[in-house]
Amino acid sequence: MATSIEIEAKALLTKKDYNKVLKHFKLDVVDGYIQKNYYIDTENKDLRKLGLSLRVRRLNGYVISFKLPMAEGLLEKTQTLSREQFEDFETHGKFPEGDISDFIESLYINPGDLKII
Question: pTM for this one?
Answer without folding.
Answer: 0.80
